[in-house]
Amino acid sequence: MTHRQGAGLTEERLEAVLRPVLGEDVAVENLNALTGGASRTTWAFDAVTAGERRALILRTGPPDDVHAAMELEAQVQQRAAAAGARVPNILTADNSPAALGNPFLICGAIAGETIVRRIQRALDDDGRTRLLNQCAQALAAIHRADPDGVGLTQSDQLIEWRDRLDEMGDTTATIEWSFRYLEANRPPRSPLVLVHGDFRMGNLIVDDQGLAAVLDWELVHLGEVYEDLAWFCIRAWRFGAPEALGAGGLGSVERFLTAYETASGTTVDRDAFRWWLTVATLRWGVICRFQAERHLSGQSPSVELAAIGRRVSETEWDVLDLLEGGGPR
């Protein structure tokens, strides 16, 4: 066991967690940290039983007031899978830190790529169209999943990000005006559904057949379908692709919304979507400012966080452009 594997996490303790699921003879090998973010850490390892080797993923991290509990993540992924979404196969999850030092979720590993630049380079026009349609179908499946009885909370995005900004104690004239305009011009509310909360390129596994799995469910909640649709289409998640490929850098926003309508059997109000796209863009601006604050305050000194903070002005431009009638139609 090396220091990289963290306090409380050992192969032996992981084996104890897996025995009720995979059998008494299970052995854990090749335990390695993949990422170490502020809230969750991801590990890859092999579980060996009776000569059979299974590639598995462990996600672990301390509980907080922002991210969904591990057992909730597991339940909603299973609900989404039952509705037709492609998600990792969940083996076990526990909100208690007793077994591994932190709450955890263990699922099957899925082969494929998550780095967006590599995905973009590998796709031709037909591949982009296929993946775009699959993303629309995945969201439609997530949104028709049964949200009852698992403890999902409702989130009003405009209020939530307004509160986040107020807690930080910093703002700009553009951001203030935009929040007030959006509140004054809110469209009629639509039914609440299970919302992924962070559905975007970078949180998807893509293989030779297209979309292999939807990842990173820690922001799941009850909300409107427009939240997920709009978040997928903000500039940041195009990763440099032209505006003509405004839906995740894969295709036009209109093609994406039409594909979603086909998959869901519903109609997307384009005016409501535009309002939500502005909210999503404003949300990204607040996130950029928050990341800058982490650096400026000394909490997490980082050139990367400082660089993200410089994108606040870019986001202000995008918000004003959307409010003035620009952006994707």
Automatic annotation (TrEMBL):
Query: Which residues are in the Aminoglycoside phosphotransferase domain?
Result: 33-248
Q: Where are the transmembrane segments?
A: none
Q: Which Pfam families match?
A: APH (PF01636)
PANTHER family, A to Z: AMINOGLYCOSIDE PHOSPHOTRANSFERASE-RELATED-RELATED (PTHR21310), BLR2944 PROTEIN (PTHR21310:SF57)
Q: What is this protein called?
A: Phosphotransferase family protein
